[in-house]
Task: structure prediction
Amino acid sequence: MKMKEKIFKIITYSSSIMTIIFLLGIITSIFAEGIPIFKEVNLKDFFSSPNWHPTCFPPDFGILSLIVGSFLVTLGALIIAVPLGIGVAIYISEIAPFKVKEILKPTVELLAGIPSVVYGLFGLIFVSPLITNLLGVPIGLNIFNAALILGIMIVPIISSMSEDALSSVPKSLREASYGLGANKWETTIKIVLPAAKSGIFSSIILGFGRAVGETMVVLMVAGGAAQIPDSLFDPVRPMPATIAAEMGETAIGTPHFHALYGIAIVLFIITFVSILLIEILRKGKSIK
Amino acid sequence: MKLRIIAILTIIALLVTPMFARGDRLTIAGSTTVLPIAQAAAEAYMNSHPEMNISVRGGGSSVGIASVMAGNVDIGDASRKAKTKEIATARENGIDLYCNIVANDGIAIVVNPSNPVKNLTIDQLQSIYTGNVQNWKELGGPNKPIVLVSRDVSSGTFEVFNKLVLQGSTQDAGALMLASNNAVATTISNTPGAIGYVGLGYLSDNIKAVTVNNVKATKQTIQDKSYPISRTLHMYTNGAPKGNAKKFIDYILSPEGQKIVEEQGFVSVR
Result:
């Protein structure tokens, strides 16, 4: 018995150590391969030049247009997904009768189970011609298309986490509100939502992190033009798409290769900060 | 007791596996353009030579050449020629990059079927892709803005297009940069004002190929190099191919192998 316990302890302990080793390994390799690019271009040019011409002579390694592309697409996705996701969460947690809830919840979660390449195909084959035909714009692969698809993709992340936050608001709060004569709408908006605030913000940040790092969809539907766009219907080239598209054909050890790792560092920092924010929100809540 | 038996069996298995694996093995990696040829040829070759075990991976031309340099693979596929820098690095490591030409490939210039434009010159293509010509009416087409569709700057297809069409000038920043031949074909077929380029194997009724300098992209014109945008596909080995690599490359160059090349939408070398 004692032996078994010991083995169990060793297995769980070593798996958690392994996770940390993997993480450290990934971080060191990203930084080790990414830092050398700053010998070729200075930090300021890397972030402030919109010219990404990695295979020209001489090459330009400016990632401003890639960063702008990533943020516009992600912002668009949040504008679509936040109201939808929170709406679904409120409906499931506060309004829906038990039976509807039982069906709706897994249905929304099923959205999260669809592989991103399927979302990408949907955007490429179905949404793109729809945009050119309905809106009369020349290009169907653009910020709008990518934001729409990404938005649909992150609805389940936002809704299921927000729903957890709403459900964990104590019943006594709601009852007190009803007791003071508030109706359901007032109780939800003025009492339950503010009480679940930090959980909902965490869900939005998590959705942001997912959208900013999502690769397949933006690779397939964002159009891939490395430019600062003039309109919502211009193509852009987000950071993950650049890495995915160019890494396979880039000679190892060249400046282009290191520049792609440089982009990976930027992505890593963005994700790291967003996870840090979620942790801070969680801590803040538990202190209260 | 049980545990001991399992342990012994595991050790035996570990010892025996590499013996089998060492048999007749051939590893291939590299260009995604050459991948369908390598894959189909490997399957056909293994059918007739069951003792042979060929593993084929993609990864890109650079990965193919780098893998030959690192000694990880027997054959490295590349849709471009090895760069001088790569050849030099290889030589430093005692590796002699040997180029075997296995197929021809042409890049067709395609537009939406609704577009009446029939022919474009290389000069016109250059003006279109650098953003100097922005409307189809300047080329005898309808009054419609030109939507540029291109491939990722590190794909082998772009590299050929860059060399033969752009000839060193910078492509317009507004061009769509798509990740595959298929994505280009799909986009051209559902975007009326679009122009793009794909490998000959990706032509279909949904997209229209225009002639370049009045030459149509066909097997004939690509083989005799009269079509201006054509290239060769390569398999790199360390020194002249020998052993299993030689057998496999000889097979691809045989009439049977070249038939596979044609079936995959490329143009044979003879």
Notes: The beta strands of chain A are 52-53, 60-61. The first strand of chain A starts at residue 52 and ends at 53. The mean pLDDT of chain A is 90.
